[in-house]
Amino acid sequence: MILLRNVVVYSPYPIGIRDILIVADKIAVIDERLIVNLPHLKTIDCNGKIAVPGFIDNHVHLLGGGGEGGFRTRTPELSFSELVRSGTTTVVGCLGTDGVTRSLESLYAKAKALEEEGVSSYIYVGSYRVPPVTFTGSIIKDLVLIDKVIGVGEIAISDHRSSQPTMDELKRLVSDARVGGMLSGKAGLVNVHVGDGSAMLEPLFHLIETTEIPVTQFLPTHINRNLKLLAESAKWLAVGGTIDLTTSVSDLLEKRLQPWYIFSELLKEGFENQITFSSDGQGSLPRFDEGGSFVGLDIGKVHTLHEQMVLAVKNGVPLEKALLPVTQNVARMLKLNRKGLISEGMDGDIVLLDQDFNIDTVIAKGKVLMLNKQQLVKGTFEI
Ligand code: FWO
Ligand code: ZN
Q1: 292 pLDDT exceeds 90?
Q2: Quick one: three-class SS letters along 193-221?
Q3: Is 134 in the same domain as 26?
Q4: Ligand 2: distance of its center to the CA of 352 in Å?
Q5: Which of 53, 68, 216, 320 has the most CB atoms around it within 10 Å of its CB?
Q6: Residue 154 pLDDT > 90
Q7: What is the CATH number of the domain that holds 357?
Protein backbone atom coordinates (compact mmCIF):
# COMPACT_ATOMS: atom_id res chain seq x y z
CA MET A 1 0.00 0.00 0.00
CA ILE A 2 1.31 3.44 -0.92
CA LEU A 3 0.19 6.85 0.27
CA LEU A 4 1.21 9.85 -1.81
CA ARG A 5 1.02 12.92 0.43
CA ASN A 6 0.33 16.50 -0.71
CA VAL A 7 0.69 16.06 -4.41
CA VAL A 8 -0.48 18.44 -7.12
CA VAL A 9 -2.67 16.16 -9.24
CA TYR A 10 -3.22 16.46 -12.97
CA SER A 11 -5.64 13.67 -13.78
CA PRO A 12 -4.80 14.94 -16.64
CA TYR A 13 -7.15 17.76 -15.54
CA PRO A 14 -5.90 19.76 -12.55
CA ILE A 15 -7.75 18.68 -9.41
CA GLY A 16 -5.60 20.43 -6.80
CA ILE A 17 -3.41 19.18 -3.98
CA ARG A 18 -4.47 15.72 -2.87
CA ASP A 19 -3.45 12.57 -1.04
CA ILE A 20 -3.60 9.43 -3.15
CA LEU A 21 -3.89 5.97 -1.63
CA ILE A 22 -2.81 3.07 -3.83
CA VAL A 23 -3.90 -0.38 -2.69
CA ALA A 24 -2.28 -3.34 -4.45
CA ASP A 25 -2.26 -2.37 -8.14
CA LYS A 26 -5.13 0.17 -8.06
CA ILE A 27 -5.76 3.77 -7.11
CA ALA A 28 -8.12 3.27 -4.15
CA VAL A 29 -8.82 6.75 -2.74
CA ILE A 30 -8.05 10.33 -3.71
CA ASP A 31 -8.90 12.95 -1.11
CA GLU A 32 -7.79 16.25 0.38
CA ARG A 33 -6.36 14.79 3.55
CA LEU A 34 -6.35 11.08 4.18
CA ILE A 35 -5.88 9.67 7.65
CA VAL A 36 -4.58 6.19 7.08
CA ASN A 37 -3.27 4.06 9.86
CA LEU A 38 -2.33 0.71 8.47
CA PRO A 39 0.61 -1.61 8.70
CA HIS A 40 2.74 -1.96 5.56
CA LEU A 41 1.87 1.58 4.47
CA LYS A 42 4.61 3.29 2.50
CA THR A 43 4.20 7.07 2.63
CA ILE A 44 5.81 9.25 -0.02
CA ASP A 45 6.02 12.95 0.73
CA CYS A 46 5.23 14.67 -2.56
CA ASN A 47 5.60 18.33 -1.61
CA GLY A 48 6.31 20.37 -4.72
CA LYS A 49 5.75 17.44 -7.03
CA ILE A 50 3.13 16.91 -9.71
CA ALA A 51 1.30 13.60 -10.17
CA VAL A 52 0.32 12.72 -13.74
CA PRO A 53 -0.95 9.45 -15.23
CA GLY A 54 1.80 7.04 -16.30
CA PHE A 55 2.52 7.55 -20.00
CA ILE A 56 1.17 5.16 -22.63
CA ASP A 57 3.38 4.56 -25.65
CA ASN A 58 1.24 3.03 -28.41
CA HIS A 59 3.96 2.08 -30.91
CA VAL A 60 7.26 0.56 -29.80
CA HIS A 61 9.46 -1.99 -31.56
CA LEU A 62 10.04 -3.95 -28.33
CA LEU A 63 12.24 -6.52 -30.06
CA GLY A 64 14.03 -3.93 -32.15
CA GLY A 65 13.24 -3.37 -35.81
CA GLY A 66 15.06 -1.98 -38.79
CA GLY A 67 17.16 -4.24 -40.98
CA GLU A 68 16.34 -2.12 -44.01
CA GLY A 69 20.04 -1.63 -44.72
CA GLY A 70 20.89 -5.34 -44.29
CA PHE A 71 21.36 -7.52 -41.23
CA ARG A 72 23.76 -5.18 -39.47
CA THR A 73 21.09 -2.48 -39.38
CA ARG A 74 18.72 -4.59 -37.29
CA THR A 75 18.16 -2.50 -34.17
CA PRO A 76 18.51 -3.79 -30.58
CA GLU A 77 15.64 -4.68 -28.29
CA LEU A 78 14.21 -2.38 -25.64
CA SER A 79 15.41 -2.54 -22.05
CA PHE A 80 13.01 -2.28 -19.14
CA SER A 81 15.04 0.58 -17.62
CA GLU A 82 14.50 2.77 -20.67
CA LEU A 83 10.76 2.54 -20.11
CA VAL A 84 11.05 3.28 -16.40
CA ARG A 85 13.28 6.31 -16.95
CA SER A 86 10.80 7.57 -19.57
CA GLY A 87 7.81 7.42 -17.22
CA THR A 88 6.18 4.98 -19.63
CA THR A 89 4.06 2.54 -17.64
CA THR A 90 2.08 1.07 -20.56
CA VAL A 91 3.58 0.03 -23.85
CA VAL A 92 2.25 -1.48 -27.08
CA GLY A 93 4.76 -3.59 -29.00
CA CYS A 94 4.82 -4.14 -32.74
CA LEU A 95 6.88 -5.67 -35.52
CA GLY A 96 7.89 -3.41 -38.41
CA THR A 97 9.36 -3.84 -41.87
CA ASP A 98 10.83 -7.16 -40.84
CA GLY A 99 8.21 -9.82 -40.14
CA VAL A 100 10.63 -12.61 -40.97
CA THR A 101 13.54 -12.52 -38.53
CA ARG A 102 11.23 -10.92 -35.93
CA SER A 103 8.28 -13.06 -34.94
CA LEU A 104 5.06 -12.47 -33.08
CA GLU A 105 6.03 -15.29 -30.73
CA SER A 106 9.18 -13.41 -29.69
CA LEU A 107 7.26 -10.15 -29.45
CA TYR A 108 4.74 -11.84 -27.17
CA ALA A 109 7.51 -13.23 -24.95
CA LYS A 110 9.17 -9.79 -24.75
CA ALA A 111 5.86 -8.16 -23.81
CA LYS A 112 5.30 -10.82 -21.13
CA ALA A 113 8.81 -10.22 -19.77
CA LEU A 114 8.22 -6.45 -19.49
CA GLU A 115 4.93 -7.15 -17.72
CA GLU A 116 6.69 -9.44 -15.23
CA GLU A 117 9.34 -6.80 -14.67
CA GLY A 118 6.65 -4.26 -13.79
CA VAL A 119 4.95 -2.32 -16.61
CA SER A 120 1.74 -3.04 -18.56
CA SER A 121 2.23 -4.35 -22.07
CA TYR A 122 0.16 -5.18 -25.14
CA ILE A 123 0.96 -6.09 -28.73
CA TYR A 124 -0.33 -5.61 -32.24
CA VAL A 125 -0.32 -8.58 -34.61
CA GLY A 126 0.90 -8.10 -38.18
CA SER A 127 3.94 -6.30 -39.54
CA TYR A 128 4.19 -3.84 -42.46
CA ARG A 129 2.73 -6.41 -44.82
CA VAL A 130 -0.69 -7.61 -45.88
CA PRO A 131 -1.81 -10.38 -45.50
CA PRO A 132 -0.58 -9.92 -41.94
CA VAL A 133 1.45 -12.33 -39.86
CA THR A 134 -0.72 -13.72 -37.06
CA PHE A 135 -0.50 -16.34 -34.32
CA THR A 136 -3.45 -18.46 -35.34
CA GLY A 137 -3.89 -17.63 -39.01
CA SER A 138 -6.72 -15.25 -38.17
CA ILE A 139 -6.75 -11.70 -36.77
CA ILE A 140 -10.15 -12.38 -35.20
CA LYS A 141 -8.90 -15.49 -33.39
CA ASP A 142 -5.74 -13.70 -32.24
CA LEU A 143 -7.80 -10.88 -30.71
CA VAL A 144 -10.33 -13.20 -29.10
CA LEU A 145 -7.94 -15.85 -27.80
CA ILE A 146 -4.72 -14.02 -26.93
CA ASP A 147 -4.98 -11.52 -24.09
CA LYS A 148 -2.01 -9.36 -25.06
CA VAL A 149 -3.27 -8.72 -28.60
CA ILE A 150 -5.24 -5.45 -28.83
CA GLY A 151 -4.97 -4.59 -32.50
CA VAL A 152 -3.14 -4.90 -35.79
CA GLY A 153 -0.11 -2.99 -36.96
CA GLU A 154 1.96 -1.35 -38.08
CA ILE A 155 0.39 -1.94 -41.51
CA ALA A 156 2.29 0.08 -44.13
CA ILE A 157 0.60 2.17 -46.81
CA SER A 158 1.96 4.81 -49.20
CA ASP A 159 5.48 3.49 -48.74
CA HIS A 160 7.99 1.80 -51.07
CA ARG A 161 8.50 -0.80 -48.34
CA SER A 162 4.79 -1.64 -48.04
CA SER A 163 3.22 -4.79 -49.57
CA GLN A 164 1.28 -2.48 -51.92
CA PRO A 165 -1.92 -3.86 -50.39
CA THR A 166 -5.05 -3.80 -52.52
CA MET A 167 -8.17 -2.14 -51.24
CA ASP A 168 -9.89 -5.51 -50.88
CA GLU A 169 -7.02 -6.85 -48.78
CA LEU A 170 -7.18 -3.79 -46.54
CA LYS A 171 -10.95 -4.04 -46.22
CA ARG A 172 -10.76 -7.64 -45.05
CA LEU A 173 -7.96 -6.85 -42.61
CA VAL A 174 -9.81 -3.93 -41.03
CA SER A 175 -13.05 -5.86 -40.85
CA ASP A 176 -11.29 -8.72 -39.04
CA ALA A 177 -9.72 -6.23 -36.61
CA ARG A 178 -13.08 -4.61 -35.94
CA VAL A 179 -15.02 -7.82 -35.38
CA GLY A 180 -12.19 -9.39 -33.37
CA GLY A 181 -12.19 -6.26 -31.21
CA MET A 182 -15.94 -6.43 -30.71
CA LEU A 183 -15.92 -10.09 -29.75
CA SER A 184 -13.08 -9.65 -27.28
CA GLY A 185 -14.05 -6.27 -25.81
CA LYS A 186 -10.82 -4.78 -27.11
CA ALA A 187 -10.08 -1.90 -29.44
CA GLY A 188 -9.10 -3.98 -32.48
CA LEU A 189 -7.29 -0.84 -33.54
CA VAL A 190 -5.49 -0.78 -36.88
CA ASN A 191 -2.22 1.11 -36.50
CA VAL A 192 -1.25 2.31 -39.96
CA HIS A 193 2.32 3.24 -40.88
CA VAL A 194 2.06 6.02 -43.47
CA GLY A 195 5.17 6.41 -45.62
CA ASP A 196 6.49 9.24 -47.78
CA GLY A 197 4.54 8.04 -50.85
CA SER A 198 2.28 10.44 -52.74
CA ALA A 199 -0.95 8.54 -51.97
CA MET A 200 -0.62 9.64 -48.33
CA LEU A 201 -3.91 8.93 -46.48
CA GLU A 202 -5.86 8.18 -49.65
CA PRO A 203 -6.33 4.43 -48.94
CA LEU A 204 -7.77 5.22 -45.50
CA PHE A 205 -10.25 7.76 -46.87
CA HIS A 206 -11.30 5.18 -49.42
CA LEU A 207 -11.84 2.58 -46.69
CA ILE A 208 -14.08 4.77 -44.57
CA GLU A 209 -16.01 5.98 -47.62
CA THR A 210 -16.67 2.55 -49.12
CA THR A 211 -17.31 0.51 -45.96
CA GLU A 212 -19.31 1.01 -42.76
CA ILE A 213 -16.13 0.92 -40.70
CA PRO A 214 -15.78 4.05 -38.54
CA VAL A 215 -12.78 6.34 -38.72
CA THR A 216 -11.96 5.52 -35.07
CA GLN A 217 -10.90 1.99 -36.07
CA PHE A 218 -7.67 3.46 -37.46
CA LEU A 219 -4.68 5.18 -35.98
CA PRO A 220 -2.39 6.42 -38.77
CA THR A 221 1.12 7.09 -37.49
CA HIS A 222 4.25 9.07 -38.58
CA ILE A 223 1.93 11.90 -39.70
CA ASN A 224 4.69 14.40 -38.87
CA ARG A 225 7.13 12.76 -41.33
CA ASN A 226 6.61 15.50 -43.96
CA LEU A 227 4.68 18.73 -44.36
CA LYS A 228 2.43 17.48 -47.17
CA LEU A 229 1.20 14.53 -45.15
CA LEU A 230 0.66 16.77 -42.16
CA ALA A 231 -1.42 19.15 -44.27
CA GLU A 232 -3.42 16.21 -45.67
CA SER A 233 -4.18 15.00 -42.15
CA ALA A 234 -6.38 18.08 -41.56
CA LYS A 235 -9.04 16.29 -43.62
CA TRP A 236 -8.70 13.18 -41.46
CA LEU A 237 -9.16 15.28 -38.32
CA ALA A 238 -12.17 17.00 -39.89
CA VAL A 239 -14.00 13.68 -40.32
CA GLY A 240 -13.29 12.75 -36.69
CA GLY A 241 -10.08 10.78 -37.21
CA THR A 242 -7.19 10.68 -34.77
CA ILE A 243 -3.58 11.09 -35.88
CA ASP A 244 -0.44 9.77 -34.22
CA LEU A 245 2.77 11.80 -34.20
CA THR A 246 6.15 10.08 -33.89
CA THR A 247 8.27 11.64 -31.14
CA SER A 248 11.58 10.01 -32.12
CA VAL A 249 12.40 12.76 -34.56
CA SER A 250 15.72 14.49 -34.85
CA ASP A 251 16.25 17.76 -33.00
CA LEU A 252 17.28 19.04 -36.42
CA LEU A 253 13.82 18.39 -37.81
CA GLU A 254 12.13 21.68 -38.49
CA LYS A 255 9.84 23.04 -35.83
CA ARG A 256 6.70 22.66 -37.94
CA LEU A 257 7.13 18.86 -37.84
CA GLN A 258 7.86 18.54 -34.12
CA PRO A 259 4.99 16.83 -32.26
CA TRP A 260 4.88 19.49 -29.52
CA TYR A 261 4.48 22.26 -32.10
CA ILE A 262 1.82 20.44 -34.14
CA PHE A 263 -0.11 19.73 -30.97
CA SER A 264 0.08 23.35 -29.84
CA GLU A 265 -1.25 24.52 -33.22
CA LEU A 266 -4.05 21.92 -33.45
CA LEU A 267 -5.04 22.67 -29.87
CA LYS A 268 -6.02 26.18 -31.02
CA GLU A 269 -8.36 24.56 -33.57
CA GLY A 270 -9.97 22.32 -30.96
CA PHE A 271 -8.43 19.00 -32.04
CA GLU A 272 -6.68 18.20 -28.76
CA ASN A 273 -8.65 14.96 -28.30
CA GLN A 274 -7.70 13.64 -31.76
CA ILE A 275 -3.92 13.55 -31.39
CA THR A 276 -1.72 10.85 -29.89
CA PHE A 277 2.05 10.63 -29.59
CA SER A 278 4.14 7.47 -29.82
CA SER A 279 7.89 7.08 -29.69
CA ASP A 280 8.50 4.45 -32.42
CA GLY A 281 11.06 3.31 -29.83
CA GLN A 282 13.79 0.90 -31.07
CA GLY A 283 12.54 1.30 -34.65
CA SER A 284 15.01 2.42 -37.27
CA LEU A 285 14.85 6.05 -38.33
CA PRO A 286 16.66 7.44 -41.32
CA ARG A 287 19.11 10.20 -40.29
CA PHE A 288 19.82 13.30 -42.38
CA ASP A 289 22.53 15.94 -42.07
CA GLU A 290 21.81 19.67 -42.03
CA GLY A 291 21.80 19.70 -45.81
CA GLY A 292 19.14 16.98 -45.87
CA SER A 293 21.35 14.14 -47.15
CA PHE A 294 20.94 10.62 -45.83
CA VAL A 295 23.82 9.72 -43.52
CA GLY A 296 22.61 6.58 -41.78
CA LEU A 297 20.12 5.18 -39.34
CA ASP A 298 19.17 6.27 -35.86
CA ILE A 299 17.23 4.24 -33.33
CA GLY A 300 13.92 5.46 -31.94
CA LYS A 301 14.01 6.27 -28.24
CA VAL A 302 11.13 5.78 -25.83
CA HIS A 303 12.17 8.77 -23.68
CA THR A 304 11.21 11.16 -26.50
CA LEU A 305 7.53 10.67 -25.58
CA HIS A 306 7.98 12.52 -22.29
CA GLU A 307 10.37 15.01 -23.89
CA GLN A 308 7.86 16.15 -26.51
CA MET A 309 5.15 16.48 -23.86
CA VAL A 310 7.47 18.70 -21.81
CA LEU A 311 8.44 20.76 -24.86
CA ALA A 312 4.74 21.49 -25.39
CA VAL A 313 4.45 22.74 -21.81
CA LYS A 314 7.63 24.82 -22.02
CA ASN A 315 6.26 26.44 -25.15
CA GLY A 316 3.06 27.52 -23.44
CA VAL A 317 0.67 24.55 -23.69
CA PRO A 318 -1.12 23.98 -20.35
CA LEU A 319 0.05 20.73 -18.70
CA GLU A 320 -3.47 19.29 -18.66
CA LYS A 321 -3.61 19.61 -22.44
CA ALA A 322 -0.03 18.49 -23.14
CA LEU A 323 -0.72 15.26 -21.24
CA LEU A 324 -3.62 14.23 -23.48
CA PRO A 325 -1.60 12.73 -26.39
CA VAL A 326 0.45 10.55 -24.01
CA THR A 327 -2.31 9.52 -21.57
CA GLN A 328 -6.07 9.90 -21.99
CA ASN A 329 -6.27 10.07 -25.79
CA VAL A 330 -4.17 6.93 -26.15
CA ALA A 331 -6.17 5.02 -23.53
CA ARG A 332 -9.37 5.93 -25.39
CA MET A 333 -8.08 4.82 -28.80
CA LEU A 334 -6.79 1.55 -27.34
CA LYS A 335 -9.90 1.06 -25.15
CA LEU A 336 -7.70 0.65 -22.07
CA ASN A 337 -10.41 1.52 -19.58
CA ARG A 338 -8.19 1.49 -16.50
CA LYS A 339 -5.38 3.53 -17.98
CA GLY A 340 -4.61 7.15 -18.79
CA LEU A 341 -6.37 8.76 -15.85
CA ILE A 342 -5.66 9.39 -12.17
CA SER A 343 -8.99 8.46 -10.66
CA GLU A 344 -10.32 6.03 -8.06
CA GLY A 345 -10.46 2.48 -9.41
CA MET A 346 -7.91 3.08 -12.15
CA ASP A 347 -4.63 1.18 -12.32
CA GLY A 348 -1.92 2.49 -10.00
CA ASP A 349 0.18 3.98 -12.80
CA ILE A 350 1.46 7.37 -11.65
CA VAL A 351 4.45 9.50 -12.57
CA LEU A 352 5.65 12.28 -10.28
CA LEU A 353 7.26 15.21 -12.06
CA ASP A 354 9.48 17.79 -10.40
CA GLN A 355 9.00 21.55 -10.86
CA ASP A 356 10.90 21.40 -14.13
CA PHE A 357 8.73 18.47 -15.37
CA ASN A 358 11.58 15.97 -15.08
CA ILE A 359 10.63 12.43 -14.11
CA ASP A 360 11.09 12.05 -10.37
CA THR A 361 9.12 8.98 -9.34
CA VAL A 362 7.47 6.20 -11.34
CA ILE A 363 4.77 3.91 -9.98
CA ALA A 364 3.37 1.17 -12.20
CA LYS A 365 0.56 -1.18 -11.16
CA GLY A 366 1.13 0.03 -7.60
CA LYS A 367 4.82 -0.81 -7.57
CA VAL A 368 7.43 1.93 -7.09
CA LEU A 369 9.95 1.55 -9.92
CA MET A 370 11.69 4.89 -9.42
CA LEU A 371 11.73 7.09 -6.30
CA ASN A 372 13.21 10.61 -6.01
CA LYS A 373 15.09 10.05 -9.31
CA GLN A 374 16.60 6.78 -8.04
CA GLN A 375 15.65 3.79 -10.12
CA LEU A 376 14.60 1.02 -7.71
CA VAL A 377 13.68 -1.76 -10.14
CA LYS A 378 15.80 -2.82 -13.09
CA GLY A 379 15.36 -5.35 -15.87
CA THR A 380 16.26 -8.92 -15.01
CA PHE A 381 19.72 -8.89 -16.60
CA GLU A 382 20.51 -5.19 -16.16
CA ILE A 383 23.30 -4.30 -13.75
C1 FWO B 1 9.81 5.08 -39.72
C2 FWO B 1 10.05 1.57 -38.26
C3 FWO B 1 10.13 4.75 -41.17
C4 FWO B 1 11.35 -0.52 -38.46
O5 FWO B 1 9.44 5.25 -42.04
O6 FWO B 1 8.49 2.67 -39.65
O7 FWO B 1 11.08 3.96 -41.39
O8 FWO B 1 10.73 -1.54 -38.77
O9 FWO B 1 12.23 -0.47 -37.59
N10 FWO B 1 10.18 3.95 -38.92
N11 FWO B 1 10.66 0.66 -40.44
C12 FWO B 1 10.61 6.28 -39.23
C13 FWO B 1 10.12 7.61 -39.74
C14 FWO B 1 8.83 8.00 -39.08
C15 FWO B 1 11.14 8.68 -39.44
C16 FWO B 1 9.48 2.78 -39.00
C17 FWO B 1 11.04 0.83 -39.10
ZN1 ZN C 1 6.49 2.78 -39.05
Answers
A1: no
A2: EECCCCCCCHHHHHHHHHCCCCHHHEEEE
A3: no
A4: 30
A5: 53
A6: yes
A7: 2.30.40.10
